[in-house]
Amino acid sequence: MLGEMIGELTGKITGIRVLPMECCPKMESSFQDMGKILDVDVTDIGTFWSLFKEDGGLYGEGQGILMTDDGEIVTWTGQGIGNMKGKGADYRVSVFFNTSSKKLARLNNTMGISEYSIDEEGNTHEKLWEWK
Predict the structure, then answer these.
(1) pLDDT at site 115
(2) What is the pLDDT of residue 101?
(3) Biggest distance spanned by C-alpha atoms of the chain
(4) How far is the CA of 112 from the CAs of 7, 78, 109, in angstroms?
(5) What is residue 115's three-state secondary structure?
(6) Are 43 and 34 in contact (CB under 8 A)?
(7) Dihedral angle sign, alpha carbons of residues 110, 16, 35, 89
(8) Cβ(76)–Cβ(95) under 8 Å?
(9) Closest-CA residue to 95 (of 104, 86, 84)
């Protein structure tokens, strides 16, 4: 069951590269987002690769680091599916967290469900909910 919204971030794609092909074209995007998770200001730096499937869909995996303003760190891994929107994309992602942060310790027992979108200029927007 979808629980409460636990975060919202906005940012920018900071780099793109094409990776060696497997079954289909594969591309990696790095990004930096800023916003709030559990009402704590964070910066999110991550990398996400995507396979461009023959049916037009996307499948991807990624990892990153959330940093609080006072230096606490949360690591995350994610896995998702999506679709191209012109030169942008929309994804639905499952996110798993690990942290020793006291402020964000609740994330250790939380699976996140995210809507992550990238517009044609490389701007990003993410909404994150707890999945109970």
Answers:
(1) 97
(2) 95
(3) 44
(4) 10, 9, 10
(5) strand
(6) yes
(7) negative
(8) yes
(9) 104
Enumerate residue ranges in the chain where pLDDT < 50: none
pLDDT for 10 equals 98
In angstroms, the CA 12 to CA 30 distance is 9
Q: What residue has token string 């996140």?
A: 112
- In the chain, % helix, strand, coil (3-state, to 5) comes to 5, 75, 25
98 touches 74 (CB < 8 A): yes
- Chain CA centroid to CA 86, Å: 20
How many H helices and E strands in the chain? 0, 8
Cα 114 to Cα 102: distance, rounded to the nearest angstrom: 23
- Tokens coding 79: 């896995």
The one-letter code for the residue type at 109 is N
